[in-house]
Every structure is written in C-alpha cells, then in structure tokens.
Write a structure and sequence with these properties.
single chain, about 260 residues, two-stranded antiparallel ribbon, about 75% helix, globular
C-alpha cells in the first residue's frame, strides 16, 4: 500500500476512535486512554531498556494510588509534574551530547514524569468544575492537530531556518510560526462556536501553550528517540509510529494546560 494512503487511513481511524471515545462517555474515554497508557509504557520501556514487568508494576501502583485518593489529589497532580517538565526543557536546550539515561532510578523518574503522571492529568482535562465536558478535550486535540498540520505545511512551503537542528532537523522556525498563527485562529473559532463557558483569553492561552509546549514535547520525544537511536517509538499506527509519537505534544503540555485551567478558566 502507498505510504501516503497508509498514513492517511491510519490517521483517520485514530482520530475517529479518539473523538468517538471522548464524546460517547467518560467511561469510554478512560478505557481508551488506559489502553494508550499500556502501549505508551511498553514503548517507553523499550526506548529506555527498562524491564517491562518493572515498568507496568510501577505504572499500576502510581495510577491506582492517585485514583484511590480523592479528587483533590488528582487536581493538584500537575504541581508534581511541572518541576520535572521544566527540568526537561532546561535539559533539552543544554549544549551537551545526546546520551542515554543509564541508572534505573533515572529511567524510572522519566517513565513516571513523562508518561504515567501526564496520562493521569489528561484524564482530568475534560472536566469543567467536576462536570465531564468532552468538547473541552476534543477542542484541545483539534488545536494540536491544527498546530501539527500547519507547522508541517508552512515548514514545507516557507521553511528556511532550522528550529533546533540538533534534535529535529526537519523542524523550521517558519513552520513553528505558521502552526502558532493557525492554532490561534482555531482557538478563536472554537471560542465563537462552542458552548463551553470560558473566555477568549482562556482559549488564546491554551492555543499558545499547545503551539509552544507541544513543539517542545515533540522535541523532547525526538531526543528520547535519538538516545535510543530509533526513528519511531512504536509501530501501532502504520505511517505514524507509536502512541508516544502521536501523544507527545499533549503529554508534555498537559500539566501546563491544567495550570491554565486553574488560573484563567
């Protein structure tokens, strides 16, 4: 099958499955993202050469610990992840050789901070004042896809200056700006046509965070893959790679998005 056709078909199936699960009910949303978490842990353990049993046991303990606690614990989970995310940003832009994590403790910290806890935060993103509001998360994904699509198109048509060639040679500054502009336009459209009770400032902040932090998240995952010397985190989606490849933007942006919820919404 032609690579473009394969990529298009798998992308359509992924989007249809994701949106359907989110819109149908909170239960189907949690089931789908629990499945995504299982795959993501597998992919990350493979990247970092972590024993799969250790990885899954740790993910189960961390996830169940928070879900057996009350909502207050989940609502402030982002405060635990934010410092690690800031560390990843600093580490990403340090001028030092890309090398694999070596100690088990370091690998476990990255697994929990980059994969497990962000998934738990994503599970809280569709809630507005404790009411399940699926349009909220669907809108976030629409902006992520808008950013990725227009960053790619603008990069192809106008890209001349590399964004961060050491980690991702194909990304350009022009592509990043194009994604940022069109994601802001998408945010204004969402504000105008959704029934979610929120301000224009909220959507503008969300769109900005998605463009900037989503791009950084993509670079962080690219660094992980360079450390492991592989192209894709997995092969579950033909033409697209693994779950980490598809969710890298929201995984990294999730704690910051939740912070915006707290401040602006």
């Amino acid at each position: 099958m032609n690579e473009v056709v394969k990529r298009t078909l798998s992308g359509i199936i992924y989007i249809a499955l994701l949106i359907s699960a989110i819109l149908f009910s909170n239960t189907t949303f949690l089931i789908l993202f629990s499945f995504f978490l299982v795959i993501a842990v597998y992919e990350f353990c493979k990247l970092f050469k972590i024993n799969f049993t250790v990885g899954y046991l740790l993910a189960a303990i961390v996830s169940l610990s928070f879900y057996f606690l009350n909502n207050t614990a989940l609502n402030y989970l982002y405060l635990i992840v934010l410092p690690f995310s800031i560390y990843l940003i600093i580490d990403l832009f340090q001028n030092k050789p890309v090398k694999q994590q070596t100690t088990l403790i370091s690998k476990i910290i990255h697994l929990v901070g980059y994969v497990v806890l962000p998934f738990l935060i994503i599970s809280q993103l569709p809630f507005n004042n404790y009411i399940y509001t699926p349009a909220l998360l669907v809108s976030i994904f629409v902006m992520i896809w808008c950013n990725d699509t227009f960053a790619y198109i603008c990069g192809k048509l106008l890209g001349k200056h590399k964004l961060y060639e050491k980690i991702s040679p194909k990304k350009t500054i022009e592509g990043f700006i194009g994604g940022l502009v069109f994601t802001q336009i998408a945010a204004i459209v969402i504000y105008k046509f959704t029934t979610i009770q929120s301000s224009l400032l909220f959507w503008i902040c969300i769109a900005f965070a998605i463009s900037v932090l989503g791009t950084i998240g993509d670079l962080v995952e690219s660094k992980y893959k360079r450390q492991a010397n592989i192209k894709d985190s997995g092969a579950i989606m033909p033409g697209h790679g693994g779950i980490l490849d598809r969710l890298d933007s929201i995984l990294f942006a999730a704690p910051f998005l939740f912070l915006i919820y707290k401040i602006v919404m």
